[in-house]
Amino acid sequence: MKTLVWVEHDGKAVKDATLAVVTAASKLGEVHLLVAGSDVDAVAKEAAGIAGVGKVHVADNAAFGHNLPENIAPLVAELMASHDAFLAPATTTGKNIAPRVAALLDVMQISEILSVEGPKTFTRPIYAGNAIATVESSDAKLVLTVRGTAFEKAATTGGSGTIEAVSAGGDAGLSSFVGAEIAKQDRPELTSAKIIVSGGRALGSSEKYQEVIVPLADKLNAALGASRAAVDAGYVPNDYQVGQTGKIVAPEVYFAIGISGAIQHLAGMKDSKTIVAINKDEDAPIFQVADFGLVADLFNAVPELTGKI
Amino acid sequence: MKILVPVKRVLDYNVKPRVKSDGTGVDLANVKMSMNPFDEIGIEEAIRLKEKGVATEVIAVSVGPAKATETLRTALAMGADRAILVQTDDAVEPLALAKIFKAIADAEQPGLVILGKQAIDDDNNQTGQMLGALTGWAQGTFASAVNVDGDHVNVTREVDGGLETVKLKLPAIVTTDLRLNEPRYASLPNIMKAKSKPLDTKSPADYGVDTAPRVKTIKVSEPPVRSAGVKVADVDELVAKLKAMGVHS
Fold it and tell me: Which residues form the Electron transfer flavoprotein alpha/beta-subunit N-terminal domain (chain B) (predicted)?
């Protein structure tokens, strides 16, 4: 089987999410990559070095610069004439593009696969991760999005992919990019961090989040996360949100501080290796999944923890 | 312009799903069902656009069993003008749903179709994007702000890392994210009024759409259960546990 993997990048470097997709694709067959964007020579070179990669298709065109699905999906659909499966990371970019590709090919997509069980058989979470479905596609071609935390990352070196330019596609004239507000963070990215310190509604304010959560994260070189309640209350930007509707994470250690543990939140973090919960309500559902639980007032316990660790 | 808003009847988001012991699916007998939360946000946004004078009519549509009528009545009570139920007892996949919505869009010629970004039962996050492909319209997914400006709509999208804004040619597809708005509650008088609003019942065959599944569910199982943890007495004990795991500054 020939697979085509969507390379997510920021114009300068391949994003980590791509590496897990390469691993998933390698379980199906030959791995080809697609690097689409504007001025992407450096990204293409880096992509060709990923272990196990065959061909790297490079579509360099201003129309592909901002991942607009109206321009990208027809390009992918055209390349799919010579591939059997299209795989994209289950990031906001992958989720935006892949279903549009699937419909152009008249196939059903299988979203957020957790494992490859056979050439057309996969597992995926449903109901916010409260059930795992094993599903089999009957379509001629596969379109899959891949949950990054469910697969090992492919090595970024050792590959010898051959770079090939693609001339297909262009501006569909339906959409344009206006602007972006990207939150600046000088710390590990949430979805790839080894340690995450996450705060919830119990913090009570943005100031308290800065005062209590941030120092612990700084000390542990951890990424910052939050529950939906904390995001909705405006304590932190929405891209901090961990959960069914936010980011899915699986770090080595996840600190849930002042987070009750609603099922929508658990859906985003319950595959973490170790979960540490600090909450003053001893009946909070978070304690049912926490490896280490501390029933205490977070405003005392967290600064003490930060001081002693 | 008209706005078309697909809505789905799903297991209420507060209910913990139980996997059937025979592995065929999740038990939906005698459990509370509600409108998919992202679809409520879609209805709310459409009504707000009507209140601003941007939209002239809001049409709610649902594909599902006869009981999905309740979901449509909720949409009507919130302020939708009329509803279409495409009645079927089969589980319909996003691709077939998108084909049904495409046929309805061809008939109704809406300026916008506003869908939820995902249904909280199958968690697919596909239908809106697929409808974009089938109609050939632009898509603004995971929207946290929608501003119609003449023959375009500016959609602010929630993306990994922050927000981005795209400008889309109308007609267009929008899928809602949680922060787009706070849906209103239907008042009792509006619930009463909704009972007399028009609701058409159709079938997938009326739109010439084959709903046979492309993806077969082989089994549904419980996720792996985490082994029970321990409660520590104080911060010192927690610090000791963490240090034993190699977590320290």
Answer: 23-211
